[in-house]
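COMPLEX REQUEST
Ligand: zinc ion
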Amino acid sequence: MNNFIFYNPTRLLFGKGMINQLTQQIPADKRIMITFGGGSVKTNGVYEQVTQALEGRDYTEFWGIEANPDIDTLKKAIAIGKEKNIDFLLAVGGGSVIDGTKLISAGIPYEGDAWELVKKGSSQVTIPLGTVLTIPATGSEMNNGAVISRRETHEKYPFYADYPVFSILDPTVTFSLPDFQIACGLADTFVHVMEQYMTKSNESYLMDRWSESILRTLVQIAPLIKENKQDYHLMSEFMMSATMALNGFIAMGVSQDWATHMIGHELTALHGMTHGQTLAIVFPGTLRTLADKKRDKILQYGERIWGVTSGVPSARIALTIDKTEEFFKSLGLKTRLGEAGIGDDTIEEIARRFDERGAAFGEDGDVTGEVARRILQNCK
Ligand code: NZQ
Ligand code: ZN
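STATUS: Structure written out below.
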């Protein structure tokens, strides 16, 4: 294991009806801003539960944080937050609302333009934030990351602020999710594990087993959720898998990759493609391109997740990658750039951007523009 510091202060409140705990979680004297997305919470009872729990409190609602939260929308919330002296934020939604609210939490105490914070990549000065999660996917409910977009320039970058002080996870609120969002959430969770697992061999037996436990749970529940997406037990497993996949627990002492994510962010920035969908296309291509380098880990993954135990190593690796792609297909996602109508011009633009930014992703920092080009060529 490599040296590490582990820190995660987010209090999790899990289960049916737990939204009513909001009263106890937010101090009574706070001036609250509640942030929302496009309105799904008005159709599934979440809005009512939140506003009932906060009846009599001093709160302002901010609506319209879009999927892949846009800096212009967030600046509007920041302006209102400054004007009203907001000192507590409650994000009610998915990764986009939570991520956007993380930037708002850093933007309210910041004097300058909030995009400067995104370009800087992080901010330590924030106001406290709690969340009510409505879609299992990003892990944003229990980490300090956010990903902020700027549609005007087709850019999308990671940004780090503070962890939510609490997050409420009630699996029943996911019952209204469209099939596509469930598929994207499952793919996102799967690839989050992979970014921290599919790196170097034997750094930690324990982290490998924790990662594999999440992967195996996802493989087990995905077809069952397709049959019944309103099954409390299954959606509980999904919700906890997504949270545990990106809250630091499986990252202790091991290398991390993140090349697939960084390439995926460019597909979203350039084409508006949903996050989980980008990963289902890019990740199999990453494995194909880096199969030699990741050889031993792919063999371990193939054996422990897909039961691939016989044949020469090259055949086992090929079969394992095929099974991974099949899994994404079984969710109902596209797995090739061609299916999404994306061609060489996009591949070249992403390679150019990576070169221009001096990109060095992957566990060894060797995924440059040229390697990204090869990965994307292998996604065709
Ligand atoms: O906006 P509303 O109307 O609420 O609809 C949303 C949105 O259209 C809908 N939805 C959410 N909960 C629902 C629901 N519809 C019905 N019932 C519910 N219970 O789903 C749509 C997608 O929501 P979004 O928040 O965009 O999904 P997700 O949680 O996948 O977040 C994606 C964003 O998170 C970033 C992605 O890049 C993307 O911008 N990520 C954040 C990470 C982090 N903070 O650590 C890591 C991830 O790798 C990821 O990059
Ligand atoms: Zn992700």
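REMARKS: The longest strand covers residues 88-93. The pocket of 5,6-dihydroxy-NADP (ligand 1) is lined by residues 37-41, 44, 67-68, 93-97, 99, 134-135, 137-140, 143, 145-147, 173-174, 176-177, 181, 184-185, 188, 246, 261, 275 (CB under 6 Å).
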